[in-house]
Amino acid sequence: MFTRSLTELTILLVDDDKAVRAYLSHLLKLAGHQVIEAADAISALVLFDQHRPDLALLDVVMPGHDGCWLARRLREREAGQWMPIIFLSSRDNDEDLALAIDAGGDDYLVKPVSPVVLSAKLRAMCRLRVMQDRMQELSEQLSATNRDLQHLSEHDTLTGLLNRRGFDVRIAYAIAVARRSKTPLTLMMCDIDQFKTYNDTLGHPAGDVCLSQVAKLLEQVCRRPSDVATRYGGEEFVLILPDTPKSGAMTLARAIRRVYERAALPHPASVAAPYVTLSGGITTCVPNDSTTVEGMLKRADEALYVAKSKGRNRFFSFEMQVDSSVSNSEFLHFSQDAHPADAPPVTNAGQRLNSDL
């Protein structure tokens, strides 16, 4: 960005007439500017790439490529940073001026150049450059503010997870990707068991701490970059698990139970366990054109209701017709009977069974 004093510029001076270059260079140096001289357009491009000058003075008529050609090439090389271009020419007519401006020039001086006029033109171009740089700075600040606002609008302030709005954006993307790649997508809706009783017993400040701890543990379980834990609302959380088949989803659910069992967050009023537990509903599908966010949420919510009705502290899957409270041998037997080609389930919560639906 152009941040130096208006009296300290690096100026690219391009003119095939050596005497003219010497005269103008002398004037510019007397005014305190650094001058880079070129006798033709090709040399000027090389110097521009090397020095990135603050301003260019270009002769219009030169052998080979003229000043208009050079101005167009310079504009192509600016990469978003505007450099003032002033044309120099002995021709004084409206057509030449129009051609120069259309080629990317900002002003036009007729030779022989008056030192007073040249100095005034440079000051004017510098003021424009400063204004442009200020606008760029304000634009960058606005973009940063918009990014911050976007982040705030899609994230829950208490837990730091994606909120309902962030969930809507991410699940729509996940469905589109899974539909295109024909891979399974799992939605896991989780609810803190008897959270109202927790708040009534320990108070809402403690409830907020509990929500943050639950969210942190869920986020730790979602180890793959594509896995996303979201706070759907209140004490409800939803996990978006791309490329996760139904048997792999149940394996993860069982791992989640173990995570909260080991964490042992106290819940003195719970009838499910003496610590904070989750109930969850799981739905898995390979999305097609009829798959909707609403449909997947409805099925996960219905599965969550079944998990609660079966005693809480468990996850239920309609697709597998089994919940996460079954024993290891029962789960293995069911998975292998339902999916003979399935690999044995892994014990790492961050991995998935690599089975077909």
Would you give an account of this structure?
The chain is of the alpha/beta class. It has two domains: 10-146, Rossmann fold (3-Layer(aba) Sandwich); 164-338, Reverse transcriptase/Diguanylate cyclase domain (Alpha-Beta Plaits, 2-Layer Sandwich), CATH 3.30.70.270. Helices cover 49% and strands 16% of the residues. The protein contains eleven helices and eleven strands. The protein has a six-stranded mixed beta sheet, with helices on both faces. Strands 2-1-3-4-5 form a five-stranded parallel beta sheet, sandwiched between helices. Strand 4 (85-89), helix 4 and strand 5 form a beta-alpha-beta unit. Helix 2 (41-51) packs parallel to helix 3 and helix 8 (204-221) packs across helix 9. The radius of gyration is 34 Å and the shape is elongated. Residues 1-5 and 327-357 have low confidence and may be disordered.
Question: Which terms would index this structure?
Answer:
single chain; Rossmann fold; Alpha-Beta Plaits; five-stranded parallel β-sheet; 11 helices; 11 strands; 49% helix
